[in-house]
Each structure stands twice: as structure tokens, then as C-alpha cells.
Write a structure and sequence with these properties.
1248 residues, 5-stranded antiparallel β-sheet, 4-stranded mixed β-sheet
Length: 1248
């Protein structure tokens, strides 16, 4: 029974003649009955779920019950038992059996709580069987009914009087009883239009007395009378004021107290969740800000007060290392330059051999494989879930609004005046129904026309589904997707008023009672979807408040498809269906007759949009590379006179440098394709950019050093190239080894995308260095020979008569930096300002770094203008709950034992700290647990199915099938109950074999999650809850110690990385920083001081980058981590060359050495790293993809500018204060430089 208003007047049926009449002058005396025995069917009630048998009007004394009669009363109405031979009643055995059937159907929802079920039946027993019946009820309407030729006066309506104290307590005992299968409240299906939120004791009883609900055989007008009020009570009537049980009380027949989930009073007293930790403060101010400010002051004070002493030492280890590396590279460069064609051919063969592996390249586009490691916890849990329950179904969704449609008032006969929003209108519902049936297409895989039924998720008929078996959730499903049902209307009379009821009445009822198989209107339509499941209102409409579904601002249409493995042919059909779905919606959105404003998505949409925008932005990357190529080609040239432009230009050298970078990337990709390590789109975008930045710097250093060098007397061109290479190659080796080791160590990351990027980048850097030492040296050798012969580039047959200048060309940048920039930068006042500013930047960035946002909101993965951005906006605006989440149990738990069932269920007799009960506790704090709807429980459903009151579980009692399961379609005569109801109400099956299941799951719903931070927090809290449940369930006897409960939903694999990405990022970047220190020390001959300053500057660049990320709204995530690893590599280029140049300078003071390094190496770094990167980065600002704009344009711009600032501003000043000292050994080696290899054969700063 549910809840609805009384209808005292009903029209006679067309084939039943009866004379309804109002009864007056009723007598009310203790010990007397108002009616007795059964007269037949109520002619005013049709389509009832049970036969509407009504009693005969019979004012007479209560009867003393015989033995059989007494036993029946004791079973149905134990509260009237006064002992055998002493009990009187006003009901016959037939009435008791009819009452039992009527109560059984309603109690099926309430039996989880014995005291509630007892209270529910209590007053119906009083009004039907009490020996003082006439004192409690007042018959208001009778009808003459002819049965078997006899005309008798039957009661078809009466008033029932009960005290508000009894009614309130009975209602309180039932108001929290849940339906485990839906997570909703039972009272919601027993209060009609009001639902659980607006249900009151009066409305609850009104529905019980409404004959139109299909359960009440006659109309009962329940009058709830407050104590002491007599004016509204007829003479002789005494409102019933018996004892109603509290839900935390046992029943007189031994029924246990209700469970915590069904009764708040039964819950153990739990402390509220601990308060969230307060922000860290010191004296009411942000504690981190105070600490950073204190450290800033300390560092600045220490810098101003402490100066390093000029300690002299002999760096023989450093010089031995430099001499060895320099002489080796000199010999190598001379050899390569002497055989350029052989070297180029050999290089091409090696690169070609590696690149052939590209035939086997595997490009990973699946986001799960890209961002979730196969051995990660979330991935293992996903694999286990998919193994036992199949992959999470594919969701295809449409959210529709009609913002221009006005709302309207509907005056319902049953529900009163209701406001309907403009979107809830018949024409739009029919339009939606028409739209959802349009999708079909020709399938080459099936060789026939394919439709939804070929790929849909059909839970009740998965093997051979029809269209009506497909899980489609939408508002039209309340009408079984039937146009006839939507158009259906009928006249209905209630309380003497006749009105038309139509789809609006059915809709109001169904959104409040979605589990109903029959509404309370005369439409008598089901609310269940045509595929056999309920459609909960939050799946059909959105944008409402406080369960006011008629005011919803959006309609929701969801198609669920099977998530086939990618190798299954039906996966292709599902993808085709989804593409057709998207195409139809795009066409419909542009059609002039479209009445909706809507957003949509398919399961494939995210991957499609990412791939689409990547493909569309490839030209942007190509333009970026082209800009870099043009710059390199122009900047490398020596422009001494207009007539020699084509001779002195380095177009082919620049092109060769670009080809070296491209070949190194292709060879790296080919090698990893050979050994089966997949690539990804992010590798195609980032690795060439990174290697180009690294390689261009080396090219500039090498070429500029060559252009500034003068060939010595009797020195061959090949020997000069070898000598120049010997000068600069150790620096190039230092950077390349540092970067490659950094990236190889970065491959220790658990994230597949980061790991594969690090591997590809590391090998590409190594190959780039190798090709620069071979192919590029050979190419430069050929270009130098061309230039010596005054031949033009490209058209080598043309020679120019203008001779080459006799002096080396310094270009325009070196003189500017030597004459202006270095002196200003290293002025005493400027040095102090620089140190103070950069220390302040560091401490500010440390503070900002602690506040960087972790995560990647999914809309950022979409390009600007994508239809998915509109979908996300609609999703966040109109959805009331989030994704479903499952609490999955692993193998080992015995569900057949009573203790096992009690540890899971939530009905009477269950553990107050059971699995489902703990989830219920958590859902009461949705802001902390991120759970909106508690978990349903198949164990509770199984217990309810066994309940004899439900009539579901039956066994054959005779014949050859005796003891076997009896189907619901079988006659009840041959079948009996599976179990008898126990006295304590705790129904548990007696299973002999252990029910140890491989896996089972319990579904709850998250709150509507909108940001990456919320998704991550939801995962974290769900895991904490599951772990707590696991520890409790392991305490059950014979449960293995490896048994586990884990949460799973489709988003967890993407957001798990954010639980550990901070610590993992620190670990990976620390691993990357380590080799920059170690390699610098080793290659500079154990120069620990230079290595330390080198490391400090790179750390500052990295920290400042994260600080600027916070200011510029760049979130920290896996893509940002890849860029930060890249930042370490690029920082090496900005820093290490300068550090080595300073360390090997023989100028007498720190200032002079810093000036020399800034002018000579700083100009090469500026031209080779900064100016190579910046033009290409600026082009990326025009990319469509937000990911590229944010994580490639913004972040790379920040990295380059900070690297430039630290490398050319901060590092020279830092070295001028704390750099290594000049040693006597360096001076000795300088004296020998005229006959052997120079340490670094630059002219002294003063002589330049």
C-alpha cells in the first residue's frame, strides 16, 4: 500500500447493479461489530491487484473464536490475542485470510523492519477484527451486492479514527525503511504523489485507504485525532490509541529490532567525521607564507654578510679530464671531417635500419593504456571487475533543454496544482521519442542493416535482445516508449469531482514511484521501462531542486551499449552506431524545426576529439618547426657582404641540423617499435620539440665556435674542424649525457605515457649527439669546402669572386654582450639586485608551488569549440548524481553462513557495521564521502525474495517436481512457500554448501563530481571506506586474509595517478637532477663546486616553473610532469655550457671569468637555445587544442624564459660570487696551448 487521498464516491461499473447509500445513525458501543463476514466484490473497484472483497454491514456483538478461527487470528493479528477461548473478534476466517493477503503485499516492502510491519498491520487488524470495532470506525457508505442470488448490504466506505500519537509513532517506525534494490525509501512508494520527502502520517494513511491504489478493497477515510480533541469525533467514537512500537523495539512475537539502515534509533552512536584539518597558520597568517618569508630574509642576509674567500687550489683532475676529452674529440672530428661522404652514407644506413622498425609501430590512443599502468591498483581492479562482470557499458547521452518555453500550471485531479517547466511538455516528449528511434545504418561487418539491438546493453535478455530489451533511460520510458501511452487519457472521478487524467498525472506518479507496475490513476499504466527496469528520475530529468521533478529544466536520454573488447567485431559495430548517433544529432541540431537546445556525447567522443584536434594541430607543429628551421638557417650564416650572402649562408647546414634531429627521433621511434614499446601522440608532439631545442643549441655552439676561430698556419680545414670540435664537444657531451641519463631515469615512472616519453626522449638525445658527432660534422666539413671555394649554396656550380674576409666573423651578438650586457650585468650594484631578485623569486615560487592545483579537468583535453565542452557544461548544470560506483568483493568470503550474510546485508538482524550499512553511514555525509546514494544489496534482495510474504520463492508441494522451484506462472495450488517466516523476523536461508563466490558487487552512486580534485578525492575516500569494510569482513570466521573489498567505477583508472603524482613527480625530477650533478662533476674532473652551482640553478628553474604554473592557472598533472622533465633537460642546455665555460676560463678574477663566459658562451646559448625555442613556441599559441595551448605554449614559454633568465642573468652573477677559482695548473696548460690542445681557445676578455 502507498499513500493517496480518499475517494468516497465511485460510479457503478457497467455490468454491476448496486445501490450505493450513505449510512446514517450508526451505533458505537464497546463489544459490538460494525460489519462482519464477506459479502463479495466491491463493484466500484476494478483492476485491483487483489480481489476487492468487502464486508457485510452487520451491527452485532463480537464473536467468541473457535480453535481454528483463533489460530488464524493469532497468526494475522497477534495483538488481539487474549488466549484460546477468551478471544473475541469482529471478523470471520474468510476476512482474516483476505486481510492477510492484502497486508502481505504491502508488508513485502516493510518486512525488513518487523516493528514497522507490525505497526502497519496493527490498525488494519483493529479496524477489521477488533471486538470494539464499532467504537473505532464509522461506516459511511454501503451498497447492495447480489451474490449467489442473495442481496446483501456491504460496506464500501468507512471512517477510521485513531490518535495522532499512535499514527505518528507508527509512521516514524516506517519512514526510514529502505528498498535495497533501489536505494530509495519504501515509504516513497506508499505515499503516492508526495513521495518520501513530503510524506506525512496523514498522507500515508490516506493512501492506505484509497481503493484506487490496487490494494485497498474499499475506501477508508482515516481521521487522525489529537489527544483531548472531541469536537470532530462522532458520539460514541473513541479514537484508537494503542501501543505502536518504536523501530528500535522488539515485537511482542519476538521480532528483532530494525536495522540501522531502516531505523535511525537503532544505529550505534557514531561520532561525526573529524573536522577537516585547519589551514596551517602562524599567528593567524598562512604558515607557509611566514616560513618562506623568513627563509627569504635569512638567505638575503646571509648573502649580504658572507662572502667566499679566494682559496687557491690545483684542479689537476679537472684538467686531465678536459685534456683527455678534448684530444679524443679533436682526433675524432678530424677523422670524420676527412671522410664526409662515407660518414654520411654510414649514418644514413644506420638511421634507415633503425627507422624500418616504424613499420611495426604501435600508437597508443586508449586513455586507459596511456595513463594507467598495467600493474597499478586501479588497473588491476578494473581488470578483475571486467573479468567477472564485463566492462562498464558504453554511455551515449543527450541532455536537452528548451529555454524559450514558458512554464505552466497543471491542476491535477489527484495531485493538485503542479507547476510544469516548459521542457516537460507532450510535444517535446514525443519529439524526444521520435529522435531516439532514428539511429540505424548498414553494417559491413554484419552485412545487413544494424540498429541499437545489435550492440545495446540488455540486462534481462543479453543473448538475443530486441529493441525493447535495450537499456535506454529517458522520460518516454515511463510510458514504455509508446506514443499510444503518452496520448492516453481517461475521465476519472475522485471525491465527487470528475476530471480528465493524462500523461502528466502518470509522470508525476512515476517520478515519485519509479518501481510501480501500476499508477494510481485510472490510466492504470506501469512506470517501469520497456526493458524491465525502473527509470529513476535523476536518469530522466535534470536541473530540479528538492525532488521537484515537474520543474526540471532538462530532459536526459541515455543509451547504454555493451563494451566489447577492441578485437571483437561488435566493437566496430558499436563504434559505427555511436558515429551514426553523433551524425544524426549534429544534423538534428542544425535543422530549422529543432525545438531543443541540447548537448550530447558518445563513449567514443573523448578519444575522437583528442585525436581530431591532434591531427588538426599537426600543421601548427609543422609551422613551428618551419619557423625554427628558417631561424637556424638564417642565424647560422656569416653575412660579411651582400655579394657573399649565398656563399656565407648556412641554409644547408641548418637543414642538415634539422634532419639530424628528425633522424634521431625517427631512429628512436623505430628502435622502440622493433622491441615492442608503443608510442603515443604526445611523443610525436613533444620529443621532436625537445630534441630540436637540445640539438639546435649544440649546432649553434659548434658552428659559432668554428666561425669565430681562425685557422692556424699550415692547418688543414679538417684539422681545424677537429680542433674546434675538441673545444666544444666536451660541453656538448656534458649536456647530452646529463639529459639522456635524466630521461632514462625518468622511465622509472609508473605512468605509461611518462615512461614511454622518457625512453623515446632519452634514446633520441643519445642518437642526436651521435649524429651530430658524425653526420653533422661531415656535413659541416662539406659546407666549409664549398665556402672555401666561394661556391653558392644550393646552386653549387655558381662561384662568387668576392674573397672571404681575413678575420673570423664574430657576428653581431658577441660584441653586444661583451661590450654592453656583461659589464652591466656584473656591475657590483646589479649583482646584488640580481641575487636578491632571484632569491625572492625562488622563495615566492616555493610558496606558490605548495598551492598548485593537482589534476586535469576533462574539458581541458577538448579543443576550443568542441561539442564536448558544451556537454560538460550541461552535465555539471543539470545532473543531480554522479557516476555509479561498485564495491566489489574478491574470492574467499562465505555468503552462505548467517554471519557472512549479516556482515553484508542491511535488514533486520544484520550487523550494524555491515558492508551496506557502512556505505549508508558514509552517504549521510556526501560532502566528505562523495557518495550520494547508498549501495543496494543483492543479499537483501535475496532475503526479501525468500520472504513468504513476497510470494516470490515457492516450491512444488506435490507431484514429480515436489521440492523443486515453482515458477511464478504456475498455479498456487501446487506450490507452497520456500520458508516460513521466523518469529523474530530474521529470515536466513539454511544453506548446506558454502557460497564462496569469485566476485560480487554492490552499487552506490557518487555525488555529481565536476573537477579533477573532486574525482580524486572521491576515489581516495571510497578506498578508505572499502579498506575499513575489508578489515571488518576479514574478522568473520574462515575468511582468508587476502580477501578484499575494493571500489570501482569507470573513472578511477584516470584519476588514480593524482593520488601519488606529487610524490612521484618529486621522485622523477630528483632522479633527473641527480645525473646533471654527477655528470657535471665527472666531466669537469670532480669539480664539485661547479656541479653544485649547476644543480642549484636547474633546481631554481624547475621550482620557479611550478610557481608560475600556479599563477598562470596551469594544473600539475602527467602532461605537466612530462614538460617538467623536459624543463630539466632544456635547463641543462641553458646552464651547463655556461658553467663549463666559466670553470675552464683562466681569467684572473671571478668577475672577469664570468664576463668572458657570458659573452662567449652566453651569446651562443641565447642564439641556440632561447631564440630557437621562442619562435616555435609562439606559433603554438594558435593551436586549437587547449592542452597544447596550456601545456605546450604556456608551459614551454615559461620554461624557456625562466631558463634564459637563470642561464644568462642569475648564473653569471652566481658564478661571480661562488664559482671555482683559477688554478696554477690552468695557467700551465694555457702556456702549452700553442703546441697542443687549448683548454678553451677563446681570446682573453681584455684582448677581445
Amino acid at each position: 500500500m502507498g499513500a493517496r487521498s480518499v475517494s468516497p464516491h465511485h460510479c457503478p461499473g457497467p455490468f454491476m447493479l448496486f445501490a450505493p447509500q450513505v449510512v446514517s445513525g450508526s451505533r458505537h458501543e464497546p463489544g459490538y461489530c460494525a460489519f462482519y463476514d464477506e459479502c463479495g466484490r466491491n463493484p466500484s473497484v476494478g483492476g485491483s491487484l487483489i480481489p476487492p472483497i468487502v464486508p457485510c454491514l452487520n451491527y452485532s456483538p463480537a464473536r467468541v473464536l473457535g480453535p481454528e478461527h483463533y489460530q488464524e487470528l493469532k497468526k494475522v493479528c497477534p495483538m488481539l490475542d487474549r488466549g484460546e477461548g477468551q478471544t473475541t473478534a469482529c471478523c470471520s476466517v474468510k476476512q482474516l485470510k483476505s486481510l492477510e493477503r492484502s497486508l502481505m503485499m504491502s508488508k513485502a516492502l516493510l518486512n525488513r523492519c518487523p516493528s514497522c510491519a507490525d505497526n502497519f498491520g496493527h490498525f488494519h487488524c483493529i479496524s477489521t477484527c477488533s471486538p470494539n470495532q464499532s467504537v473505532t470506525i464509522n461506516v459511511t457508505r454501503t451498497a447492495n451486492i447480489t451474490s449467489q442470488g442473495t442481496v446483501r448490504e456491504a460496506v464500501v466506505a468507512y471512517q477510521a479514527y485513531l490518535s495522532t500519537s499512535f499514527a505518528d509513532k507508527a509512521f516514524d517506525s516506517c519512514k526510514s525503511v529502505r528498498i535495497p534494490s533501489t536505494g530509495g525509501l519504501a515509504i516513497g512508494t506508499m505515499c503516492g504523489r508526495y513521495g518520501s520527502a513530503l510524506c506525512t502520517p496523514q498522507r500515508w494513511y490516506d493512501f492506505q485507504g484509497d481503493s484506487s491504489n490496487g490494494l485497498a478493497p474499499l475506501d477508508i477515510d482515516f481521521r487522525l485525532i489529537p489527544e483531548g480533541v472531541t469536537g470532530a469525533v462522532p458520539a460514541g467514537i473513541v479514537p484508537y490509541n494503542g501501543t505502536a512500537l518504536g523501530c528500535n523495539e522488539k515485537t511482542p512475537t519476538g521480532g528483532e529490532v530494525c536495522s540501522c539502515q531502516d531505523c535511525q534509533a537503532s544505529c550505534p552512536v557514531l561520532p561525526p567525521p573529524p573536522a577537516l584539518p585547519a589551514p596551517f597558520t602562524i599567528g593567524g597568517v598562512d604558515g607557509y607564507l611566514v616560513i618562506c618569508a623568513t627563509l627569504l630574509g635569512f638567505l638575503i642576509l646571509a648573502f649580504l654578510l658572507i662572502h667566499p674567500s679566494e682559496v687557491t687550489c690545483i684542479d689537476r683532475n679537472s684538467l686531465v679530464a678536459q685534456e683527455f676529452l678534448g684530444s679524443w674529440f679533436q682526433a675524432w672530428g678530424t677523422l670524420i671531417a676527412s671522410h664526409p661522404f662515407k660518414v654520411l652514407l654510414a649514418s644514413a644506413v644506420v638511421v634507415g635500419a633503425f627507422a624500418t622498425g616504424l613499420m611495426y609501430i604501435e600508437l597508443t590512443t586508449d586513455p586507459v593504456q596511456l595513463w594507467s599502468a598495467p600493474d597499478s591498483r586501479a588497473r588491476k581492479e578494473k581488470d578483475m571487475h571486467d573479468k567477472y562482470f564485463d566492462p562498464f557499458f558504453r554511455t551515449n547521452q543527450l541532455i536537452l533543454t528548451a529555454p524559450g518555453r514558458p512554464s505552466y500550471i497543471y491542476d491535477s485531479l489527484i495531485f493538485g496544482k503542479q507547476n510544469f517547466s516548459g521542457i516537460i511538455s507532450k510535444d517535446l516528449i514525443l519529439e524526444l521519442l521520435k529522435l531516439q528511434t532514428r539511429i540505424q545504418f548498414w553494417s559491413d561487418d554484419l552485412n545487413r542493416t544494424a540498429s541499437l539491438k545489435d550492440v545495446c546493453f540488455a540486462p534481462l535478455n543479453p543473448s538475443n535482445p530486441s529493441l525493447t530489451d535495450c537499456a535506454v533511460n529517458s522520460l518516454p520510458q515511463y510510458f514504455q516508449n509508446s506514443v499510444d501511452n503518452i496520448n492516453k487519457k481517461v475521465n476519472m472521478t475522485k471525491l465527487g469531482v470528475t476530471k480528465e487524467v493524462d500523461w502528466k498525472d502518470h509522470f508525476i506518479y512515476c517520478v515519485n514511484s519509479p518501481l510501480s507496475f501500476k499508477d494510481i490513476t485510472d490510466l492504470k499504466m506501469s512506470c517501469m521501462a520497456d526493458y524491465g527496469a525502473p527509470v529513476f528520475p535523476f536518469l530522466a530529468v535534470g536541473g530540479y531542486e528538492n525532488d521537484s521533478y515537474t520543474n526540471a529544466e532538462a530532459l536526459i536520454l541515455t543509451f547504454s551499449l555493451n563494451n566489447y573488447p577492441r578485437e571483437n567485431v561488435k566493437f566496430n559495430i558499436a563504434m559505427e552506431w555511436e558515429q551514426r548517433f553523433l551524425d544524426i544529432l549534429k544534423e538534428y541540431q542544425m535543422s530549422p524545426g529543432n525545438p531543443f537546445t541540447f548537448a550530447y556525447m558518445a563513449e567514443r567522443s573523448l578519444e575522437d576529439e583528442i585525436n581530431r584536434t591532434t591531427a588538426e594541430d599537426i600543421p601548427i607543429f609543422m609551422i613551428s618547426y618551419a619557423v625554427i628551421f628558417v631561424y637556424i638557417s638564417v642565424a647560422l650564416g656569416e653575412y660579411t657582404s651582400f655579394s657573399r650572402i649565398l656563399v656565407d649562408s648556412k641554409f644547408l647546414v641548418g637543414l642538415g641540423g634539422i634532419l639530424v634531429v628528425g633522424c634521431s627521433v625517427l631512429a628512436s621511434m623505430g628502435f622502440y617499435a622493433w622491441i615492442g614499446i608503443p608510442s603515443s601522440l604526445i611523443i610525436l608532439q613533444v620529443v621532436p620539440f625537445l630534441v630540436l631545442a637540445v640539438g639546435a643549441d649544440n649546432i649553434f655552439i659548434f658552428v659559432l665556435e668554428y666561425q669565430r676561430d681562425a685557422r692556424r698556419p699550415n692547418e688543414k680545414r679538417e684539422e681545424q674542424i677537429g680542433r674546434v670540435l675538441g673545444n666544444v664537444a666536451p660541453s656538448m657531451l656534458l649536456c647530452s649525457v646529463s639529459e639522456s641519463v635524466c630521461f632514462f631515469l625518468g622511465a622509472l615512472s609508473t605512468m605509461p605515457a611518462v615512461r614511454s616519453f622518457a625512453l623515446y626522449a632519452a634514446l633520441a638525445v643519445v642518437l642526436d649527439f651521435v649524429l651530430q658527432m658524425t653526420a653533422f660534422v661531415a656535413l659541416l666539413s662539406l659546407d666549409c669546402k664549398r665556402q672555401d671555394r666561394n661556391r653558392c649554396e644550393v646552386v653549387c656550380c655558381i662561384t662568387v669572386k668576392t674573397p672571404a674576409p681575413s678575420k673570423p666573423n664574430e657576428g653581431f651578438l658577441l660584441p653586444i654582450m661583451r661590450k654592453y650586457y656583461a659589464p652591466v650585468l656584473l656591475h657590483p650594484v646589479t649583482r646584488v639586485i640580481v641575487m636578491v631578485v632571484f632569491i625572492t623569486m625562488l622563495m615566492s615560487s616555493i610558496y606558490l608551488m605548495l598551492h598548485v592545483t593537482v589534476g586535469l579537468d576533462q574539458e581541458l583535453a577538448m579543443p576550443k569549440g568542441s561539442y564536448m565542452l558544451e556537454y560538460f557544461k550541461y552535465l555539471y548544470a543539470y545532473f543531480e548524481v554522479g557516476v555509479p560506483t561498485y564495491f566489489v568483493t574478491t574470492k574467499g568470503f562465505d555468503f552462505s553462513k548467517v554471519m557472512g550474510m549479516n556482515a553484508v546485508c542491511s535488514s533486520v538482524g544484520c550487523d550494524p557495521f555491515s558492508l551496506t550499512q557502512k556505505i549508508q553511514y558514509a552517504s549521510e555525509y556526501p560532502q566528505r564521502s562523495y557518495l550520494a546514494v547508498p549501495a543496494n544489496s543483492w543479499v537483501d534482495d535475496f532475503i526479501d525474495w525468500l520472504n513468504p510474504g513476497s510470494g516470490c520463492c515457492r516450491l512444488y508441494t506435490e507431484g514429480p517436481d515436489e521440492g523443486k522451484f515453482c515458477n511464478a506462472s504456475e498455479s498456487s495450488k501446487r506450490c507452497g512457500k520456500c520458508m516460513e517466516k521466523p518469529d523474530n523476523g530474521v529470515l536466513r536461508p539454511n544453506l548446506t554448501s558454502g557460497a564462496v563466490l569469485s566476485a560480487t558487487r554492490f552499487m552506490a552512486y557518487h555525488t555529481a563530481l565536476t573537477t579533477s580534485r573532486e574525482f580524486t578525492a572521491a576515489l581516495k575516500t571510497a578506498r578508505e571506506l572499502a579498506h575499513n569494510i575489508t578489515l571488518t569482513m576479514r574478522k568473520i570466521n574462515d575468511t582468508p586474509p587476502d580477501f578484499e573489498v575494493f571500489p570501482y567505477t569507470v573513472t578511477y583508472v584516470f584519476y588514480e595517478q593524482y593520488l601519488t603524482i606529487v610524490s612521484e613527480g618529486v621522485f622523477i625530477i630528483s632522479l633527473c637532477l641527480l645525473p646533471t650533478f654527477v655528470v657535471c662533476c665527472l666531466l669537469l674532473g670532480m669539480d664539485v663546486r661547479s656541479g653544485t652551482l649547476n644543480l642549484l640553478t636547474i633546481i631554481m628553474i624547475t621550482v620557479d616553473t611550478v610557481g608560475v604554473m600556479t599563477l598562470w592557472g596551469i594544473d600539475y598533472n602527467a602532461v605537466a610532469l612530462i614538460n617538467l622533465v623536459t624543463a630539466v633537460g632544456i635547463s641543462v642546455e641553458f646552464v651547463s655550457h655556461m658553467t663549463r665555460s666559466f670553470a675552464l676560463s683562466i681569467q684572473p678574477t671571478h668577475i672577469e671569468r664570468a664576463k668572458e663566459a657570458t659573452a662567449t658562451m652566453g651569446s651562443a646559448v641565447f642564439a641556440g637555445v632561447a631564440m630557437t625555442n621562442l619562435p616555435g613556441i609562439v606559433v603554438l599559441a594558435f593551436a586549437k587544442a587547449q592542452l597544447i595551448q596550456i601545456f605546450f605554449f604556456r608551459l614551454n614559454l615559461v620554461i624557456t624564459l625562466l631558463g634564459l633568465a637563470h642561464g644568462l642573468i642569475f648564473l653569471p652573477v652566481l658564478l661571480s660570487y661562488f664559482g671555482t677559482f683559477v688554478s696554477q695548473a690552468k695557467g700551465q696548460l694555457r702556456e702549452l696551448s700553442s703546441n697542443s690542445l687549448p683548454v678553451y681557445d677563446n681570446m682573453t676578455f681584455e684582448n677581445q
